[in-house]
Every structure is written in structure tokens, then in C-alpha cells.
Design brief:
Helices cover about 40% and strands about 10% of the residues. By secondary structure, the protein is of the alpha/beta class. The chain has three domains: about 1-120, no CATH class; about 135-300, Rossmann fold (3-Layer(aba) Sandwich); about 335-420, no CATH class. Helix 8 links the parallel strand 7 (about 205-210) and strand 8 (about 230-235). Its main location: Golgi. It is a single-pass type II membrane protein.
């Protein structure tokens, strides 16, 4: 339903224009996930790929495409990014090749789960709560602060019998042996209890912590259901939240969640209940408050009748993120290229003039530059000079040890941080 939600909200968006020349970004109302789902089982790769191929052929014929060759276009998918990156044409291989099409690589895709690809951005799974007013949000949040929570932790899910060394098997075993500290909702049971939003909410509202291990993929809708219930999420892989929802969740994950290494759990180095009982009451209260504060950010509201005074919801934050992303990509090569080296605030060390504005005669270079004051020039020059050690490759055979890290050092530091984020067991 994510595509439907976004399409409906986009049609009501307050800053729409029919003139692509003045548009900051272009929304492509292609229901990528829903379309692919029709052909995932029992169809050959040609059928799975055909709609995406046709879409790209249609888009690249449009004059709007040639402005930025699709880098200002974005679409939405209710399926994970991996489903659109099939690497071969074997029928047995999963998904489509849509995101491997050359032109598709320029598109930004908002998806429930991203991967290591920079043009896929994770947005929250839709929950069952779509408030139509700010009052409804506040009325939902307030009881979560005083809710009686008799269980230390809970888990709603099924074991993955086909997966060797499944984290879920360990979690279920820990839950069943926790002496009533844990409540388990078995999604393998008859009756499909896990499909009932009320039963899920009742479980999470009665729990202090909610366990969120990976399942068929790294992320789960249950993460957002637990946040909605004021239940502190417990993650076992950084890719389940910390490296996914960067536009939505705090960088300091310990403010709103607990992390337990899946490897440590499997090796018996940690027991879930022993880890969680060490969290003090003050820490629990602080984390729960942070979780409750996140609720407006991870829901998709019904804007037909309000929500204007509530913090931006998941849709608003997604559009804001897309606009900032396109803004960075629009003609600002240095700003989007050398992120490990140059300051985020580009105005501290440079001047930007829009190529489009220049071509349209909206700006003259000399008129733009003479408006920069002497103090601003001095400040920018000092910042430029300060950057020199960061953009040179020093000869370390004879010194430079006391100088700020050079380009080589910053590159290695960046690589290590990137690998650390991608390495599932390391945090």
C-alpha cells in the first residue's frame, strides 16, 4: 500500500507544479512493488522485467528526463530494494532487473528496505494508524507513557525453519525459558494472529522491550508497530534500522533502542533477559519517551483534515529528503562528490550559481559575486586554506604527522566506517 499512500498524498501536496522547468523534483507514479508482485511466482524473467523496461523507455523520451537525465525523478516501492536487482536471467533467480537498467540507476527509489546502493532510500513501513488530526496523534501518544507493561520483552514472529543458525530460533528459545518475563505471539499458529493489528498492539503495549530480529530480510514492519505502541525496539542487526531509516531515526541509536549482537546470542555469550534487566528505570523512561516522540515521524497521516500542527510525518520527511537530495545533485558536483573531505555547509567555502538560472538569464556572475562582502570573502578564504591538508596526499616518509589527516588518511577512515556499517555483526 505504500505506493498508493504516496500517490494519494502527492496529489494533495501543497507545492505541486505542472511546469517541469521550475520543479525541484519529479514524482513518477509507478507502483513498482505492486506491479512486480503480480509476476514474482510462476513467470519468466521477461514478464518480471517488462513493465520496468517499458517505464524507462517512456521516461527517457520525455523532455523532463533530459534536464538531469532522471536524477531529479523519484518513485516509491512497497517491496525491498533487493527485489529489483536480479543479477542474471535465470528463471529461478528472484525479482526483476529494474534497478540494474542504466537509466534506472539515476532514479531515486523510496523503499521499505534499502541496501548498499545510494539511490535507494528506506522509508517506514505503513502501520495501521493513519490519524486525520493532530489531536488524534496526541491522544495516541499520551496513554503510551503510562501504559501498564507487565512483560519485560515480547516477540511476534515465526521461526525460520529453513534457515540454519536462525536468530529467531534463539529468540524463541530465550522467550520460552524466561520465566514469564517474555510474551510470545507465534505467527506459525493457526488463526493468523500476527495479521491482527489489535492483537499486535495489545502485545507491544504490554511490553517494555520488543524484539526485532531479521526475518526474510533485514527489516520488519513490526519495528514501526512497536514504536507506535511505545515499546522500545531491540535489534540484532544494524541493517534492521540503524543503517536504513536515516531520515527518520536518531543517529544515536542507544537513545531509543537496545542492540544485541546476533552472533553473541548464537554463541551463548549473552542472554536477552540478562541484558535487558540491566537497563535502569531511568534509562527505560528516557528511551520510551524518545520512542513516543518518534511516533509522528513514522506514521502516514490522513491529511484530508489536518495534522498541520504536528511534527512532519513519514511522507513529509520523505519529500523533504528527496528535495534536499535532488538539490545536492543539481549541478553541485563537488558538494555531492567529496563528502569525506569538504564541509557539509558548502556556503562556508564556495559560491554556488545555478547553471539553469545562468542559461535563463536570471543571474549574472559578476553581479552575484560583487554581493559577497569582504568579511564573507575573508571567512571563505580562511576555510579554503584550512581545507588544504585534507585534499593533499602527503609524503609521510619525512613528516606531516602533526598535520591534520591528509586525503589518504580520510579515505581509509571513510572506508573503515563504511565497512563497519555494512558488516552485520559489528557496531
Amino acid at each position: 500500500m505504500l505506493e498508493v499512500i504516496f500517490h494519494d498524498r502527492m496529489k494533495k501536496y501543497k507545492c505541486l507544479t505542472n511546469d517541469s522547468l521550475v520543479a525541484s523534483a519529479i514524482f513518477v507514479p509507478y507502483y513498482a512493488g505492486l506491479d512486480l508482485r503480480r509476476y514474482l511466482w510462476g513467470f519468466n524473467t521477461s514478464m518480471r522485467d517488462s513493465s520496468g523496461f517499458d517505464l524507462i523507455n517512456w521516461l527517457k523520451q520525455k523532455p523532463q528526463w533530459k534536464t538531469m537525465w532522471g536524477k531529479d525523478h523519484f518513485l516509491v516501492s512497497s517491496r525491498i530494494a533487493r527485489d529489483f536487482r536480479r543479477k542474471s536471467d535465470r528463471k529461478s533467480d528472484w525479482g526483476s532487473n529494474f534497478r540494474f537498467l542504466p537509466e534506472s540507476k539515476n532514479l531515486s527509489m523510496l523503499t521499505i528496505e534499502s541496501g548498499p546502493w545510494e539511490n535507494d532510500i528506506a522509508v517506514p513501513y505503513p502501520t495501521s494508524f493513519h490519524p486525520s488530526s493532530d489531536y488524534q496523534v496526541l491522544q495516541w501518544q499520551n496513554p503510551m507513557r503510562t501504559q501498564n507493561r507487565p512483560y519485560l520483552f515480547s516477540f511476534a514472529g515465526a521461526s525460520r525453519t529453513r534457515q540454519k543458525n536462525s536468530t529467531r530460533k534463539e529468540i524463541i528459545r530465550h522467550c520460552q525459558s524466561s520465566n514469564k518475563l517474555c510474551k510470545l505471539l507465534d505467527c506459525n499458529s493457526v488463526g493468523h494472529e500476527c495479521d491482527d493489528p489489535l492483537k499486535l498492539m495489545n502485545l507491544f503495549r504490554s511490553s517494555i522491550f520488543c524484539l526485532q530480529p531479521p526475518g526474510d530480510s533485514l527489516t520488519r514492519r513490526s519495528t514501526f508497530d512497536s514504536i507506535l505502541a511505545g515499546c522500545i525496539p531491540v535489534f540484532f542487526h544494524p541493517g534492521s534500522a540503524y543503517t536504513q531509516y536515516l531520515w527518520y531515526l536518531p543517529k544515536n541509536y542507544s537513545n531509543y533502542s537496545v542492540f544485541i549482537s546476533a552472533n553473541d546470542l548464537k554463541l551463548g555469550k549473552v542472554r536477552i533477559e540478562e541484558k535487558l534487566v540491566t537497563v535502569s528505570k531511568d534509562e527505560v523512561a528516557s528511551m520510551r519517551e524518545e520512542v513516543i516522540r518518534l511516533i509522528p515521524r513514522i506514521i502516514y497521516g490522513d491529511r484530508r483534515s489536518g495534522l498541520e500542527s504536528v511534527e512532519d510525518d513519514a511522507f513529509d520527511l520523505a519529500i523533504e529528503g528527496v528535495l534536499k537530495r535532488v538539490d545536492r545533485l543539481r549541478g553541485r558536483s563537488a558538494y555531492t562528490q567529496y563528502l569525506w573531505y569538504l564541509p557539509k555547509n558548502y556556503s562556508n567555502y564556495s559560491v554556488f550559481i545555478s547553471a539553469n538560472d545562468l542559461k535563463l538569464g536570471k543571474v549574472r556572475i559578476e553581479e552575484k559575486l560583487v554581493t559577497v562582502s569582504k568579511d564573507e570573502v575573508a571567512s571563505m578564504r580562511e576555510e579554503v586554506i584550512r581545507l588544504i591538508p585534507r585534499i593533499i596526499y602527503g609524503d609521510r616518509r619525512s613528516g606531516l604527522e602533526s598535520v591534520e589527516d591528509d586525503a589518504f588518511d580520510l579515505a581509509i577512515e571513510g572506508v573503515l566506517k563504511r565497512v563497519d556499517r555494512l558488516r552485520g555483526s559489528d557496531l
